[in-house]
Amino acid sequence: MNKTAVFPGSFDPFTVGHEALVRRALPLFDRIIIAVGENAEKNNLFSIEMRLRMISKVFDGEERVEVTRFSGLTVEFCRRHNAGYILRGLRTAADFEYERAMGHMNWKMAPEIDTVFLLTSTEHTPVNSTIVRDIIKNGGDASMFVPSSINLSDYLGR
Ligand code: PNS
Q: What is the mean pLDDT of residues 121-133?
């Protein structure tokens, strides 16, 4: 049976933590779809198109990773793509409460889809897209927090 996981998120921007998580999850699944949520509008810095381009660059040549956008419910997206798993990362106890609620509610809506949580690598625990965004907005150098294949200046025009 083909095991497909959907890794949903806003990825504004995609971080080293996200990249490491996908690479660690690859041995567990046949295919991982990184799904960039269009309706998770949270004061976005990078457009959906930019985020899709950035993430595609990171996994260029990795045939088992697809990158796409989605709107609507994550579980409906999973059903449309025959994905039996939702992949999420857990950094801290604070993440856990939010993830638990989302995981339980997704499971109530779609009991055939399980959420698989991976603990983030210890070195990536503090890396958080909201803070990375804030560093960028304030002119800081956030290059160490995003995958090495992403050159932020290509997207920021500076
Ligand atoms: O990176 P984020 O912001 O933590 O990702 C949140 C995301 C996109 C996974 C979540 O907002 C989501 O699943 N949105 C799609 C709508 C949905 O299914 N909502 C119900 C989840 S219980």
A: 94
**CB 73 near ligand 1, within 6 Å:** yes
Domain count across the chain:
1
pLDDT of residue 157: 75
Q: What is the pTM of this model?
A: 0.96
Q: Where are the alpha helices (DSSP H) in the chain?
A: 16-25, 48-58, 74-80, 93-109, 129-137, 153-156
pLDDT at 148: 95
Instruction: Give the pLDDT confidence score for residue 40 in this predicted structure.
Output: 60
Domain extent for 33: 4-156
CATH number at residue 69: 3.40.50.620
Distance, in Å, from the CA atom of 116 to the CA atom of 128, rounded to the nearest integer, reads 20
Cα angle 22, 25, 26 (rounded to 5 degrees) comes to 85
Probe ligand 1: pick from 102, 127, 131, max atoms within 8 Å of CB?
102
The SS3 assignment for 113 reads coil
What's the Cα-to-Cα distance from 127 to each of 19, 54, 92, 99, 143, rounded to whole Å?
A: 12, 17, 11, 17, 12
Distance CA 18, CA 7 (A): 9
Mean pLDDT of the chain: 95
Q: What is the mean pLDDT of residues 79-108?
A: 97
